[in-house]
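Dear colleague,

Following up on yesterday's call, I've attached the two folding results inline so they're easy to grep. Please treat them as preliminary; we haven't cross-checked anything against experimental data yet. The first protein's sequence and structure tokens come first.
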Amino acid sequence: MYLMFLRIALCGSLSCAQPANCVTQPSDNVAVVDTLRTMYAAATVDDMTKLRGVFAPGAYLYDGGVRYDSIDALMQLIHDYRAKGAKFVWNVTQPDVHVHCNQALVAFVNDGSITMPGAASPSPQKWLESADLEKQDGVWKIVFFQSTRVPPPEPAK
């Protein structure tokens, strides 16, 4: 993960000359986004086996200003909200994917909603999110994930 950030700092992008043995396929961009969509599909139905499968060992996450050392820890928080009746909808939109060899960086807008207990309708939500992924044994795995909720617009005066 840090190698990719160092490469960005030194080269200004992920497009520095790739080593001769580095092969990046156009399908990698799609596979990176599919990994994120798999994460959200699994989170929607509490499929912890599938969720753990998209994260690399040692991966960690930042969400709501808190560091989580595993997807299990973050999902416990989500599970606690669901136990109270909250419902979440997540959608990966506007993905901006940069792949270099076996590393990928993706930034995207999570355009969804939260329905809190007793609410008549869902409250639209947007999160600005990014992830660092690594291709391990031919499969893209999330090694770092961050999410920042976009504050709702100020009411008109």
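Below is the second protein, in the same order (sequence, then structure):
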Amino acid sequence: MNVRTSGLAPVKEAQLVDKYAFQGLTSAQHRFVMLVFSGLSNVEAYRAVFDVTGWADTSVYTSAYDMANKPLIKAKLTELRQRVEAQSTLAPNLTREFILNGLMGLAINATKESVQLGALQTLGKTIGIDLFRDTVVTEKRVRTVEEVERELRTRLEDLKRTLTIEGESRPADSTPAAAPAARDRRRKPKA
């Protein structure tokens, strides 16, 4: 499209001069990268860039996965994330030394004991001290069948002595009394 301004030479519509503007990515791939970088999932970005009407969901998921795992796309996403990290004002100050010094300060100067304990636990974990790890000791004993049976009999006898069961007992060979006939719960027809 040519646009004529007053007395000046015609101006062409803006075009990309640099053939490496997308660094080897197609415009669709570049748009996909920008949408993923903005926070969309790979599938959402793929659906926004490409026409997937009539596609099965599995086809869309597979294509989005393949697109996200292309080396150029991975490299561009990594570059964008690193660029944002470098621009962050907090990231340069967050070093291992800074965090450890902060934790040591909390461990020494905190007014609450729970804060001090938490800081000490975190410090211990960062340098590999396992004082706060729960240890479970398992003991394996080899017992014979007779020993197991004897132990079970002893436990059963102890249970018999301690348990009292309330109720009525009948000899095992007697037949139970007949239960009353069940009440008919069907609805009666309306007149």
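For the second protein, one point worth flagging: Residues 95-127 form one domain.

Best wishes,
A.L.
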